[in-house]
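G.,

No rush on this.
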Amino acid sequence: MIRLNSCKSTHTVERTAVNGLQERSRITWNRKKGKASLAFEHPPLIISAASVAGKKEGEGPLGALFDKTETDDMMGKADWEEAESALQKEAADIAIEKCGIQAGDLRYLFAGDLLGQLIATSFGTVDLEVPLFGLYGACSTMGEAMSLGAMTVNAGYADKVLSMASSHFATAEKQFRFPLAYGNQRPMSSTWTVTGCGAVILAKEGTKGFKPYGRITGITTGRMVDLGIRDSMNMGAAMAPGAFHTIQQNLEDFQVEETWYDKIITGDLGEVGRQILLDLMKKKGRDLSQLHMDCGMEIYDKETQDTHAGGSGCGCSAVTLCSYVLPKIQKGTWKRVLFVPTGALLSTVSFNEGQSIPGIAHGVVIEHIGREK
């Protein structure tokens, strides 16, 4: 994990005599790194992870790794939005059950989706009766949820929190692009919104009785990056500059090279966005070609599933993290990864008004539990 002596931490010690007999010591640690990053003094543990995916996702390369694959994308509900809410509830229930706790043991829930007013989240999690922070970071929401959850646990404001994000192909197409019955032709730069939900439970350092997947040792919070992309069918191009900025900021803030990580994993740039990211990094003298992995390119088989540039949506990075990435970290196959979910912040209103599409990405440093402090 991130070493104390590599973080340029500062501390002050104050000793005040009380009646000439007692001393009081106070150590205040400054864990801020660079412009946008934090290194956690008490890295939260990832004690549980759950992934629930749809039928198309289950037929892809990661299908056997999901905790549950739904053969009916309607989930037996009356509409697509209710189905996405059911995905969230199911993923939360599985994550809670897998680590043997109760919903009441969770102090906070950090969760979001792509729908207006976060209706998949608010309707899907109401029965959990856990205090909710509803989040919208577009497809970067899983990174935002994990970042805020980790900050809360590290600071001592909670012992356990749940971080979660979902998306659904039909609800996303209905809200952002075209009704499914329209049968529009999709350009090759477009991506396929993942039907799925991923959930992780974070617990304070030193929590016993679990076999953690790893620990979150730091984060880099992204900022809006807008290079004027206006093509809503090319989300990779809109998000790649945001991913580039967050990755570059992370490396600068922690004063490390890209090879410090075993993998740098973006959320859903797809083939187009990935190439743009690699080109931008190359201009900075950094070669990510062997280190980089994109969740959107892992979840589908391009040759057999007709998903064009790859997968997208909040659920894309969330289910790939929970089913594929975290088990590799737990086993020690990857010792340290930078998980960077990516998001394109647009709406039908902004798009129809001719506005460009800003991108954002949030970085989460996840390390194998075997690493020394």
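When you get to it, here's the other one too:
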Amino acid sequence: MILDELIIQTITPTTHDLGDFRVHRSLPARERTMVGPFIFFDQAGPARIGPGQGIDVRPHPHINLATVTYMFEGAFLHRDSLGTEQLIEPGAVNLMTAGSGIVHSERSPDAERAKQSKLSAIQTWLALPDGREEMEPAFEHVSEGGLPIVDCGHARARVIMGTLWGESAPVTTYAETIYADIQLSPGGKVPIDTDADERAIYVAGGDAALDGVALLPQTLYVLRPGTRATLMSVDGGRVIYCGGEAFKTPRHVWWNFVSSTTERLYQAREDWEAMRFPLIPGDDQEFIPIPKGRPKTVSYP
């Protein structure tokens, strides 16, 4: 099978150099903003961070979305305006539901700063469905041992959200969602499920192919709906598989805000400028300022 029969879009991420590490951003993109509920897709790192250094993502707000943090290597200390303080380490997942509004920060914990450390993570946002955008903010953490593993011998997949290959993750979903971390040993292969409106695969490391056709690293491939394929690797690779329910109502994205209306984005902008969002207990001395100018939104569909 040729790749065009399997793939409807190939998205090369924009790369942002943040000094200590690079971030590869696949969504939102000019050609596509969402895959299922996924409206933001970042790969941070991999990077090495020297002793005495660390990552400091200062307090900033979100509305009408849920953030999902999944670590490959390293650790983050999450704090938010609900009073949550949660360390996240490899294999675990943090789901923070912004809903009507939340503020959070992510920083390297002291133990990571005291030594040479590594950072590698996938950060995604999920748009909240119609009728739930303004729900109460919430936070949940599921440890590495709490997420189901599907082991096929030469392929091992951790189900982060949703149900895949007969296993269901205990992480809350607000719309139909699939999300998995697939690690392929040399010669490993795994079938790609078809039971989702929209699906994509992202080669986070190593090599991978679909039905024998090689895929590029750090590239998001949106799969044709309903097509069956086998994901495989020659020398070993790591692939993120994501997607879910197609949204019928457009979503608008600006800065850290997502909403079905641009008016809500403007309101959130004004609220952050006026510091009307709640503050983070224990981390309320810094913040990321609002970008200058009026919001220029990206919309889907």
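The CA atoms of residues 30 and 111 lie 39 Å apart. The chain has a mean pLDDT of 93.

Enjoy the weekend,
O.
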